[in-house]
Amino acid sequence: MARYRPEPAYTHGRPARSAVVLVNLGTPAAPTAAALRPYLKQFLSDPRVVEIPRLLWWPILNGIILNTRPKKSAEKYASIWMPEGSPLQVYTERQAKLVKGCLGGEPPGIEVHWAMRYGQPSIPHVLEQLRAAGCTRILVVPLYPQYAAATTASVMDEVARSMLTWRNLPEVRFVRSFHDDPGYIAALAQSVREHWMKNGQGDKLVMSFHGIPKRSLTLGDPYHCECHKTGRLLAEALELPAERVLVTFQSRFGRAEWLQPYTQPTLEALASKGLKRVDVMCPGFVADCIETLEEIAMECRTAFIGHGGQQFDYIPCLNDRPDWIAALSALTRRHLGHWSELPAADPVALQDSARRAREMGADC
């Protein structure tokens, strides 16, 4: 068998084509145990996600986890499933369409696609589409604001692995992280202000980030530091004193110690000590998903109220907010650099473009 696959037809003199791929974590195709099993198997088989020797992990994964967890997870997914599908899929697809709308003035031929690290559309599938379309410049934008080996690096791995059989490789760029990007921070801050205008302020603002094993921090993963920097910048933008803000970590898996403080126990302790009202947001997720809508907005709400709290307000993720789409589009254009061959766009004009694109795509 040939090592490299045949290349698409090529025309000499054809101008270079640029493409953008927004990548998020992934989602099962349906909220069912049958759909969860292959999704979880792919996710939990990634050595970037579970750093346990394969000989030890494989029997646990296939003999225990994949026989018990799919049914439980399916019930949770069913509780947050939207008419159009998984929230993560719905919002990621919208983000791609809206960014494409904001980049409408780019040279003809630029592509904007979206992919999932686990599930569909897969990274290899989307890259094959771009290969067939003759794209020779690809910007990959992992939609993880804070870099972690288990997320951003896994996307980089999969992109490289997908191109192992390509003979004619494109130029590839990655957005490593955007935890301190001014547009991202400004969009987060405005989402909090708007929530406060409608609902009033809680006694504390809890920023819950997805957890990773503490061992990752000690081995040099910068994720913990980037989460705390996001939290600090957001608190500064909101002019909140330190005692009004907490950074916590959620979604712990297994028995090993993960980054602390853990979100749910922290909320339970706050309620037990007499805190009556709390606002909770998840800045590490740019689109609502099972970790935000079920774990935080449902499970943590129940825990807080059950321990004596009176009001739990969940502040949604950025999703398809115009200011976030404008920030993401500006970030994308900066990383495209000379590939876009256009001067930097005015931020206000980008936000107006995002709003118009959102209105045009509202019925999609």
UniProtKB/TrEMBL annotation:
GO cellular component terms, A-Z: cytoplasm
PROSITE patterns the record matches: FERROCHELATASE (PS00534)
GO molecular function: ferrochelatase activity; metal ion binding
EC number: 4.98.1.1
Chain sites annotated for binding Fe(2+): H210, E291
Gene Ontology BP term (one): heme biosynthetic process
Broad class of where this protein is predominantly found: cytoplasm
UniProt-listed CDD domains: Ferrochelatase_C, Ferrochelatase_N
Pfam families: Ferrochelatase
Pathway the protein takes part in: Porphyrin-containing compound metabolism; protoheme biosynthesis; protoheme from protoporphyrin-IX: step 1/1
InterPro entries: Ferrochelatase, Ferrochelatase_AS, Ferrochelatase_C, Ferrochelatase_N
Compartment(s): Cytoplasm
NCBIfam families: hemH (TIGR00109)
UniProt similarity note: Belongs to the ferrochelatase family.
Known role: Catalyzes the ferrous insertion into protoporphyrin IX.
Protein name in UniProt: Ferrochelatase
Organism: Pseudothauera lacus
Gene name, Swiss-Prot/TrEMBL: hemH
